Amino acid sequence: MTRRVQYEELCEILARIFESVGTPHDIALLLAENCASCERDGAKSHGIFRMKGYVDSIRSGWVNPAATPRIEDVAPSFLRVDARNGFAQPALAAARSLAIGKARKTGACILTIRQSHHLSALWPDIEPFAEAGLIALSVVNSMAVTVPYGAKRPLLGTNPIAFAAPAEGRAPFVFDMATSAWAHGDIQIARREGRPLPEGIGVDADGEPTRDPARVLDGGALLPFGGHKGSALSMMIELLGAALTGGQFSTEVDWSGYPGAATPLTGQFILLIDPALSGGNPFAVRASEFMTNLSAAGLHVLPGERRRRNRAENLKNGIVLTDEEWEQLMTLAPIPGENANAILER
Ligand SMILES: NC(=O)C1=CN([C@@H]2O[C@H](COP(=O)(O)OP(=O)(O)OC[C@H]3O[C@@H](n4cnc5c(N)ncnc54)[C@H](OP(=O)(O)O)[C@@H]3O)[C@@H](O)[C@H]2O)C=CC1
Ligand SMILES: O=C([O-])C1=[NH+]CCC1
């Protein structure tokens, strides 16, 4: 059985869960909207199933949900943020308008965030920059669960890269993808649902190829997407996400003393470019032309379109949750089931 939950109601429930474990109201709202947006857009690998990880990370003391980020304005085009063991999203929110101002003034801004926990998709971080007319690129490293191409043991995170660019008269061009063959979240969902993986996604504890998600998760590892190419991109993300920001490499994430912790404590890199300084015709016009050419070449789905379709459908009709998903949420919710149901009926 399934039920439909309005986006705003889901945000309210998630915010209460965050608040119940000591997250200040404003940060709870921000994280709730971020997680509910993933669910709303069908980005299930970072939707509500992640709530237990957030809660356990906070309860274990691994992350400080009330941390106040410290912003360091180090150069005309360079901003550093120390999240101080808090979540990456409030750190980004604190620096967002300063970063936009620098990008508009100097043409570009590099924003690095360190000592930050990121358990979500990257597109919610950068899509708003493109909506504001800027080009944005972001990467974050995670935890060492991916074996570099040709290596024997995991050293890389699942390390996503996301890019967003404005396009005239249409939604921005946005892609967001793990550099491992699959996101770790999708492997967890496959295990929960008892689904075998396709070939080429992961290996077991002996380094042998396996299609069993449990064997990948329990001592095994993921492979990079696209062999040595995805592997090289993922290496770049370790360098930008950790070495440049002052954060930790994925191998340095040690949450062993924090049972249940699931939020990697690493770093995030964001590059903003103001396309107002580009040559020739305006960038957004050229981007739109390019997207039209892609469609004319027979491409039916541009990156980001599936998400936006889900968003439109789910904002109109409500987000579909299975009974199992709802029950899992209710075990975390500080509101008794009856009150939660009242929220749903409103
Ligand atoms: N915080 C962290 O440390 C980590 C976060 N993640 C997150 O996990 C999420 C999922 O990653 P991943 O599983 O690799 O993403 P997907 O493989 O599902 O999608 C990658 C990109 O390709 C696009 N796409 C998918 N299918 C098609 C298609 N048939 N035609 C055209 N475009 C297509 C998607 O658009 P669309 O969005 O519209 O589907 C998306 O932009 C990401 O949001 C990522 O940020 C991953 C690893 C670590
Ligand atoms: O799905 C994934 O690979 C991850 N999401 C957050 C940390 C790693």
Automatic annotation (TrEMBL):
Domain of life: Bacteria
Keyword Membrane: no
Pfam families according to UniProt: Ldh_2
Transmembrane segments: none
UniProt keywords, alphabetically: Oxidoreductase
Annotated family: Belongs to the LDH2/MDH2 oxidoreductase family.
Protein's recorded name: Lactate dehydrogenase
Annotated organism of origin: Sinisalibacter aestuarii
